[in-house]
């Protein structure tokens, strides 16, 4: 399969999805995992981006390998009561689904006009240059796993099952400890996932680093004293 070989060659190991910490509790305690807006129950209706200018309310928005920090920065402080966020790492094999859609730039650009399906659409994410709204170029040193535009998106139809959530990233060790206690000591039924401390993914430093060919800082939380 050409598509799968391309993923392996580029070194793509995950998709990423930002969500609030308290929302992650609902996601990790349900086998259905992350639900698209159109499939959320009314009593837990909590949407990161209520406008959804991409018009794809039946899809879950993700990014490849690293998160869309610029989108997160825009929405992260909208709820003053819940300010902690996590990044869910997702099985990259969801890229192969027939229903999966791709956008080489932010999916909301021109109200979703650049969203496409199929392997060729995926390849557009890695164009040497993009001239959509603004011009973006790949550097010669850029990590091959990263799309040319930092805000390129992958849209997964309906939901991302809990079994396809393969890890979680947090901003610092203090948050890692809080989430660890909350998920594995206060709740039942949460699968044991690797937790990664990844400050570069929350402060946006990853963008410059990947263009220089440097892997952003992240390391596995080992539990520590609880």
How are the SSEs ordered, and which strands pair?
Layout: H1 2-10, E1 15-20, H2 21-28, E2 34-35, E3 59-64, H3 69-75, E4 85-90, E5 101-103, E6 115-117, H4 119-124, E7 129-132, E8 134-137, E9 153-157, E10 159-160, E11 165-170, H5 173-184, E12 195-197, H6 199-203, H7 205-211, E13 219-220
Parallel strand pairs: 11-12
Antiparallel strand pairs: 1-3, 1-4, 2-10, 3-9, 4-11, 5-6, 5-9, 7-8, 12-13
Notes on the structure:
The chain has about 230 residues and is α+β, with helices and mostly antiparallel strands. About 25% of the residues lie in helices and about 25% in strands. The strands form three sheets. It has a nine-stranded mixed β-sheet. A two-stranded antiparallel ribbon has the order 2-10. The chain has a two-stranded antiparallel sheet with strand order 7-8. The longest helix is centred in the C-terminal third of the chain and has 12 residues, at about 175-185. It is globular, with a radius of gyration of 17 Å. The chain starts with a helix and ends in a 6-residue tail after the last strand.
């Amino acid at each position: 399969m050409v598509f799968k070989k391309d993923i392996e060659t580029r070194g793509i190991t995950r998709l990423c999805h930002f969500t609030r910490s308290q929302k992650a509790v609902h996601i990790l305690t349900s086998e259905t995992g992350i639900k698209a807006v159109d499939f959320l129950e009314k009593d837990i209706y909590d949407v990161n981006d209520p406008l959804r200018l991409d018009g794809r309310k039946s899809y879950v928005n993700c990014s490849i390998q690293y998160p869309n920090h610029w989108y997160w920065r825009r929405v992260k402080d909208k709820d003053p009561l819940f300010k902690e966020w996590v990044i869910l790492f997702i099985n990259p094999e969801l890229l192969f689904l027939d229903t999966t859609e791709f956008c080489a730039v932010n999916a909301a650009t021109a109200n979703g006009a650049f969203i496409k399906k199929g392997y060729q659409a995926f390849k557009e994410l890695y164009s040497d240059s993009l001239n959509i709204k603004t011009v973006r170029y790949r550097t010669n040193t850029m990590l091959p796993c990263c799309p040319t535009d930092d805000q390129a998106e992958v849209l997964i139809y309906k939901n991302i099952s809990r079994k396809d959530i393969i890890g979680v990233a947090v901003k610092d060790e203090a948050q890692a400890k809080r989430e660890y206690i909350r998920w594995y000591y206060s709740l039942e039924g949460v699968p044991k996932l690797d937790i990664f401390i990844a400050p570069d993914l929350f402060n946006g430093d990853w963008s410059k680093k990947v263009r220089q060919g440097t892997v952003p800082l992240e390391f596995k939380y080992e539990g520590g004293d609880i």
